[in-house]
Fold this sequence. Notes:
This protein is α/β, with parallel strands linked by helices and 611 residues long.
Amino acid sequence: MNHFYNILRYAKPYKNFAIGHIIANVFYALFGTLSFIALKPMLDVIFDAKKVVPTSKPVYTGIMKLGEYAENYLAFEMNQLTGGDNAKALVYVVGLIIVMFFLKNIAGYLANYFLVFLRNGVIRDLRNSVYKKTMELPLSYFSEQRKGDILSRVTSDVLDLQYSFLSVLELIVREPLTIIFTLIAMLYISVNLTLFVFVFIPIMGFIISRIGKSLKRKSDRVQKEQGVFLSTLEETLTGLRIIKGFSAEDNFNTKFQESTTRFYNFSNKLLNRQNLASPSSEFLGICMIAVILWYGGNLVLSGNADSSLTGSTFLVYMGLAYNILTPAKAISRGLYKIKQGSAAAERIQEIIDTPNPLKDKEGAIDKTSFDSEIEFKNISFKYQDDYVLKDFSLTIPKGKTVALVGQSGSGKSTIANLITRFYDVNKGEILIDSINISDLKTSALRAQLGIVTQDAILFNESIKNNLKLGKQNATDDEVIEALKIANAWEFVKDLPNGIETNIGDAGNKLSGGQKQRLSIARAVLKSPPIMVLDEATSALDTESERLVQVALENMMKNRTSIVIAHRLSTIQNADQIVVLNKGEIVEQGKHQELIDKNGVYKKLVDMQSFE
């Protein structure tokens, strides 16, 4: 139930709709009960009950006699209106019943009207909250999660809540009040009969709880398996070229079908267990009605066990007893839904409650400029068990270009992850203008940085919107200028719609070199003082590399740059080259100085065989 209360917290902004929903449900339950009670005068007329009609207006004598007062008052008013004519009385009673049912249904509509805004508002805010938290969490969190599972939580799990937890909001007031009002009316008619109802209610509750005991576990299995096949689908769409290239369609097809078969089996068990709710509660209810028919029928036939129980009163009582069945069934279904929704709520809450180790400190500094230098001061870092960087120290003065080289796994890309604060260091500190970056607002830190990665990450948008990611207020002229600097305008100007051209999912309408130049143009348009280039040319062919390299050189002019290079031909003009091996600096200097040393750098250059 804790998860239920956590979800209900999101209803706070919609409390006015909740109040309206509650008030409307109170009237729904009240008019629903009164509509059955109003049948009694009609049945008295039909059966010609020998009932003495009061000739004077009855006097209210207290709450304990409220029912009797209401009945006598109604009979008195009816007699005054009809003059004792039963035909007229019947018309008036029928009209009264119609009014009661009309008011009941108006109240029911209003309750649902308010609930629509309440439920959809909670779902919207919950989905926004999960998405926002997903954006805030560090990259390390997602390296341990399936993408499909995250998608499943944001989409289907939230949808499950809409039809499980939040649909129960309708039951919280309406159904219990309907039962309470009905029981009050039944107690007034016959205490003895109503005691039979109280005997059956706990029996029904016990059987229903036994049926629903394992629903949460079964629902959790269904939702987890849905995350598995969504992950397989996401991986298939991402790696379709490789799957086809290696003729691995059958392997992935088998993997997907195995997951959907497990989902099929789990879903069948869950839904069949849910389907027990309605027939079991209805059967128990009919058993209760049967007992009332037997016992109450004997009371009416005997004529002395309960003198107030006439034929018409007994029929009204049976209607009231049956009126309990519908809310009782709804409550039993609601309990199942809470069990089912509990698993979805737990999975959603797991994301929302995940601590963010990279969250800004209290009073974090909002730095807006870069003035002197970047300093890596005795930093050590590990992703899991082994340190990737060990006691690493490096100072990068403003305006200088520093290249990081070394074999794969030497820690080059880790430097980029740490300066951008995608991860926090385990030991030491990274300083910008002598301020630890962990003391800066993350948004302020990243505003100083432009990032170009090996994989050109583009979005299914126009070229202009892709470039404006870091500068939303950029003009078309600024976009075009950035494209020129990035050596990309030459192909963009020939596209059908120029900068308004949509480049498709992940930019798949463009070549690798074109995508990379757009990535560079995006960083240029942002125009940050510090550039981080993480192997920006390593995935390109020779011609594309040449064009991109020119673009990079244009971009790095008058900027501080950290260049992580795989192809050493691209960093010969760097102000300083730092050679890494197993997370430690083994050499540093300019290109020619390192060649003359005839050390690790010279070996790396020789292996790439460039002159």
